[in-house]
From TrEMBL:
Residues 1-31 are annotated as: Disordered. InterPro entries: Alkaline_phosphatase_core_sf. SUPFAM superfamilies: Alkaline phosphatase-like. The chain crosses the membrane at residues 55-74, 86-103, 110-128, 164-188, 200-220. Gene3D superfamilies: Alkaline Phosphatase, subunit A. Keywords: Membrane, Transmembrane, Transmembrane helix. Coiled coil: none annotated. It comes from Streptomyces hyderabadensis. This is CDP-alcohol phosphatidyltransferase.
């Protein structure tokens, strides 16, 4: 029987033997044998083409070194992603080289592969930190934030289309896997290179360690950054601390949520000074301080606020406005909503799950607890089951499918704000009822990517929303502005003007002597629009015809009108619930944590 080598193929069996159903098919080569065969082919190619093989080895080594060093020096924010960050000596590379030089072959291979895989995982986390910092103003939380990636895919689908979202998701997974595999292979490659030139590598490692320690001791800098760095270790340590802090926070917040200044207050002692009023709490998506103070957006938004203040005053309404610091930034609106209404600082998903699973009194539920109000929610952004309605104390919730809308979506927003408000009027606010109404209304037209933005139509023309077909088709496409900061600012400003106009015109048209409106932004827009380092402040206004409603908050020192002054008081958003309940006569009956 002939010996099978990479250069000797066995003779092909006769055709009749191959076609004979009684002849069993020869088993395929084992995976190990296949690998050995390919390895023999590679060695033979190197023998025949030594120069090309040398070039491939050098390129592979250079790419491996660039990949490992780049991963070790990669920052976790886009702002820090500058060339000077990569002109440094990572201490982890020096320690890793020394460790690999000390190990025998098998442990060295294992250690290099593990080091490379861990470095790839850290790179993935750094990239996630970049994205979360850019969009949400905070780092990625390894424990809590995986579910938000699904929301991100849904947002891309609404903004760019389902195909783009699918390809983006596939690309992200492939990139993550490639980073893990390639950094592991690169580390193994460098480890084997060190072992092959052990003496020279040891001298080089000693020199690198000496230079690193000298630069660290003297604080030597190049291009404004320290030459000696341990940024990768610091990033890994920060991730570990974040995980530990998250786990500790869960138990501490659960105790905090049980302590409630008004938790045991009887219904007849809650908001007695608002009896008989139709109470409406409205959140305007992404309505932040930047809309009022940024030089690009402020002129248009300011004119809208001034005109709306004057129009409401002519209709008999007056307003007071201040600032609240939101628990979230750039997104995760539900954290802002729950913080404002619960009086607790709900700044992550774990806290949100904890508080909504309990019985902490929300501002909206306080009205339900009195038994004197019908409570409803207008939630055009809700497109699936929403069990939180019970926690918010809402007897009935109208989601995206309950308001009879037959028009087009405006990117992420399922319907224009004007339609949502007109539906609220038709379904609830305009109906005759035995008890006054308490409503939570979420307006979504100012949700990113702020294209296309609806425009106002005659209130009698709103109908079932079909009137918006041409408006949506003629609008700016999300894909045209989503990476353009200047255009995003312009369209964001337009969307805020639209939302404010919709709300104030609705109040002017349908408000009564007993209507009280509290409206605010849930968070600032993302950094591409609000700017790096922007505050988390959002405007908040109380509007009413009855002067007693505004007299009750005189000691808040808020600004008259819909636009808060720059120096108006700034409270944490979690402070509003207790201040509001106290201002309108609620009697504290605390529960303990």
């Amino acid at each position: 029987m002939p010996v099978i080598t990479p250069f000797h193929r066995p003779p092909r069996p006769p055709d009749d033997a191959a076609d004979d159903p009684g002849t069993p098919a020869a088993p395929g080569p084992a995976p190990l044998e296949t690998f050995r065969t390919r390895l023999a082919h590679w060695r033979a190619w190197r023998t025949r083409h030594p120069r090309a093989a040398l070039a491939v080895r050098r390129v592979t080594t250079a790419v491996s070194a660039i990949l490992v060093l780049g991963a070790l020096l990669l920052p976790n924010t886009l702002v820090a992603l500058e060339p000077n960050r990569f002109a440094r000596i990572p201490g982890e590379a020096v320690v890793g080289a020394v460790l690999l030089l000390c190990l025998p072959r098998l442990p060295r291979l294992v250690a290099a592969a593990l080091f490379g895989t861990a470095l790839g995982a850290l790179t993935v986390l750094n990239l996630l930190d970049m994205g979360f910092t850019e969009y949400l103003g905070r780092n990625f939380n390894l424990v809590l934030d995986w579910g938000l990636l699904d929301d991100a895919q849904s947002f891309v689908a609404d903004s760019m289309g389902g195909a783009a979202a699918t390809w983006a998701a596939v690309g992200a997974v492939v990139l993550a896997v490639l980073l893990l595999v390639l950094t592991a292979l690169a580390a193994v490659r460098l480890g084997e290179l060190l072992a092959a030139h052990r003496e020279r590598a040891a001298r080089g490692a000693l020199m690198a360690a000496t230079v690193w320690m000298t630069c660290a001791a003297l604080g030597v800098q190049t291009f404004g950054v320290p030459v000696a760095t341990t940024s990768a270790s610091q990033a890994a340590r920060a991730q570990a601390h974040r995980v530990a802090d998250t786990l500790r926070d869960e138990a501490a917040f659960a105790r905090e949520a049980k302590a409630d200044r008004f938790g045991a207050t009887p219904g007849d002692q809650l908001v007695p000074d608002l009896r008989g009023k139709d109470m409406i709490f409205t959140f305007i998506e992404s309505y932040g301080r930047s809309a009022i103070e940024d030089p690009v957006m402020a002129p248009g938004v300011g004119r809208t606020l001034d005109a709306s203040t004057a129009a409401l005053a002519q209709a008999g309404f007056h307003a007071r406005s201040g600032w609240l610091t939101s628990a979230t930034y750039g997104g995760s609106s539900w954290l802002g909503h729950s913080t404002f209404l619960s009086g607790l600082w709900v700044d992550n998903q774990q806290r949100y799950r904890t508080v909504t699973a309990g019985d902490h009194l929300t501002l909206t539920k306080a009205f339900e607890k009195t038994g004197d109000w019908d409570t409803v929610g207008i939630m055009p952004g809700v497109q699936k089951a929403w069990p939180e309605a019970d926690w918010y104390g809402l007897d009935k919730v109208y989601d995206a499918f309950d308001v009879g809308y037959r028009g087009p979506k405006f990117s992420w927003s399922t319907m224009p704000d004007q339609y949502a408000l007109e539906a609220f009027q038709r379904l609830e606010h305009g109906r005759k009822r035995e008890r006054p109404l308490m409503a939570e209304v979420i307006l979504t037209s100012s949700h990113q990517p702020w294209a296309p933005v609806p425009r106002m139509v005659g209130w009698d023309e709103v109908g079932d929303g079909s009137v918006y077909e041409g408006i949506e088709a003629a609008g700016v496409k999300a894909s045209d502005i989503i990476t353009d900061s200047a255009r995003s600012k312009e369209e964001y400003g337009r969307s805020i003007q639209y939302s404010l106009t919709s709300l104030t015109q609705w109040l002017e048209r349908y408000g009564t002597d007993d209507t009280v409106l509290v409206f605010l932004g849930d968070h600032q827009p993302l950094a591409r629009v609000s700017g790096d380092g922007a505050s988390r402040d959002v405007p908040v206004s109380v509007v009413a015809k009855d002067p007693k409603v505004l007299d009750a908050i005189d000691d808040w020192d808020w600004t008259e009108g819909l636009e808060p002054a720059k120096d108006a008081p700034v409270w944490k958003m979690s402070a509003f619930r207790d201040r509001f309940l106290t201002a309108y006569g609620s009697v504290p009956h605390p529960t303990k944590g």
